[in-house]
Write a structure and sequence with these properties.
The chain is an alpha/beta fold. The protein is built from 15 helices and 15 strands. The strands form 4 sheets. It has a 9-stranded mixed β-sheet with strand order 1-2-3-5-4-8-9-14-15, sandwiched between helices. Strands 6-7 form a two-stranded antiparallel sheet. Strands 10-11 form a two-stranded antiparallel ribbon. A hairpin with a 2-residue loop joins strand 12 and strand 13. The longest helix is centred in the first third of the chain and has 22 residues. The N and C termini lie far apart (about 65 Å). The structure holds 3,4-dihydroxybenzoic acid.
Length: about 500
């Protein structure tokens, strides 16, 4: 009898708890305030509903999001052909350097874009904006590190689930048209969100946070210079940069920033360093390991031709990468840029006819000594990202290491390559991937492999390498939102 009462009390408690948990996720439109900002000389009025918890049992106080809705939609008006019912939902994340990401509120003067930020431009073009803050590798709760992998993707998914849970309460926005956006580590996160829709691996993590019991697949994913596929990023880096032994780092690698904005705006350290004999030795091992990985992917170009590399790193995949740089340089040339001083491309009669990848590393310069990501001394941001709850860094690539590795399941949960083409996953229908031709943070091969695998699995991918563009994002917002219109309308 005692047990019976205990069970009833327990069940009542659980029911009460479950109700409280779900009700905590209900969107309350009464907190909205109207704001006005100027974008391109035009006044943009919008409703702001800020700092809303997107999980019922947060692991950190930062797990909050803000909703921004063009004011027109509350009056039943249309913008850019969208209505309150059809407006896509732009879901930017502010993650950089695998650090905690802040909510990206609309602002008029943004360092990344040089003007209105992506959130404000999105509103001006009739999109609803929902931006979650996201745990990062330095997030703690009572001295415990609660933001290590896979926290960032769990949070982004929880935000998507929150949106779907509130589909009938949000004043505007089509929950079947969610479009993620991010840069660098945030680009990797955006790529991962797009590639892992409803993947069962994340379920227990989401449940533990009291995330809404909803789908977490999205419609489209915009990924600027994604620092992704981390287990293979070292080999891809040496495939491009092998032979270049001078490197200079960005300031944030020497002095970890306290926020993601600093991580997104690295200040180059002028003084270059020389790689040690040991680093040069592993550089060769990593370079030599890349063809095997690349060939294991069975990638095909748009004509169905298999893309491979021989043991020296030459072959059809290399030609594919060269073509991406040729395409990039040609566009710059067509736009009237003077490329006569660029020694790694060959121009004949106004056409870019070849690129010399051997000369590329000296021209663009190496940023990171080998290994670029999974450091011998565990000192990288990525080692930290895969660290444990007590902040001990871990290895994550088996190319060089067989000890002190992070949990293999967690490593796999951070790599979008593992999810593409799986029956139990809903991949976003559209991806836009950008990686600057002068980006030295990761090899162009990494986003290229990701784009190809998506394409080979029937996904619509717009992949381009903008000329002279270094590591950064949101630099082409007009084109980004044109692309969003083109896939949504
Ligand atoms: C970022 C840049 C890097 O070079 C890196 O290794 C990880 C993250 C970033 O800017 O987010």
């Amino acid at each position: 009898m005692k047990n019976f009462f205990a069970a009833v009390i327990f069940m009542l408690g659980m029911a009460n708890f479950a109700c409280a948990a779900t009700s905590d996720l209900i969107f309350d439109s009464s907190i909205g305030v109207e704001k006005t900002l100027t974008c391109d000389g035009r006044e943009i009025k919008f409703m702001a509903y800020e700092n809303i918890s997107y999980v019922a049992e947060p692991a950190s106080e930062i797990q909050k999001l803000s909703v921004y809705i063009p004011a027109e939609y509350l009056r039943g008006e249309k913008i850019n052909g969208y209505s309150a019912e059809t407006a896509p939902i732009f879901l930017p994340n502010g993650v950089g350097g695998y650090m905690p990401g802040k909510i990206l509120a609309p602002v008029e003067n943004d360092r990344m874009s040089g003007g209105a930020n992506a959130s404000l431009v999105a509103l001006s073009r009739g999109l609803v904006v929902i931006s979650p803050a996201i745990r990062g590798r330095t997030t703690t709760m009572n001295g415990v590190y609660v933001g290590k992998a896979p926290a960032l993707i769990v949070d982004y998914k929880a935000a998507v689930r929150w949106i779907r849970f509130n589909r009938d309460r949000l004043p505007a926005g089509d929950v079947e048209k969610i479009i993620s956006n991010g840069t660098s580590a945030g680009g990797a996160l955006s790529a991962l969100l797009g590639a892992t829709g409803n993947a069962p691996e994340y379920q227990t993590y989401l449940q533990a946070l009291g995330a809404a019991d909803e789908r977490d697949d999205i419609f489209a994913s915009s990924d600027y210079c994604p620092i992704t596929n981390l287990e293979n990023a070292d080999t891809a880096y040496e495939w491009i940069f092998y032979g270049e032994t001078k490197y200079f780092q960005a300031m944030w690698q020497l002095m970890p920033p306290t926020d993601s904005e600093a991580a997104n705006n690295p200040v180059p350290v002028k003084k270059s360093s020389e790689m040690t004999a040991e680093e040069i030795r592993v550089s060769k091992i990593l370079r030599d390991a890349f063809p095997k990985y690349l060939n294991s992917l069975n990638l095909r170009d748009e004509h169905g031709k298999i893309l491979t590399l021989d043991k020296n790193g030459n072959g059809s995949f290399k030609n594919f990468i060269k073509k991406k740089y040729i395409e990039s340089a040609q566009k710059a040339l067509d736009n009237g840029e003077d490329l006569s001083g660029v020694d790694w491309i060959k121009i004949k009669k106004g056409r870019v006819v070849d690129v010399d990848l051997k000369k590329y590393p000296a021209a663009v310069t190496r940023m990171k000594a080998a290994p670029a990501f999974d450091k011998l001394d565990l000192s990288s941001g990525e080692n930290d990202e895969f660290g444990d709850e007590m902040n001990n860094p871990r290895h994550f690539s088996e190319v060089l290491f067989n000890e002190n590795l992070a949990d293999k399941k967690i490593i796999a949960m951070l790599n979008p390559m593992n999810f593409i083409g799986r029956e139990d996953v809903t991949t976003a229908k559209h991806f836009r991937i950008r990686h600057g031709a002068a980006d030295r943070d990761t090899s162009l091969a990494i986003p290229a492999i990701f784009a190809l695998k998506l394409q080979n699995n029937g996904v619509d991918v717009d992949f381009f390498s903008p000329w002279a563009q270094g590591h950064g994002g949101d630099y082409d917002l007009d084109e980004l939102f044109d692309w969003i219109d083109s896939v949504c309308k």
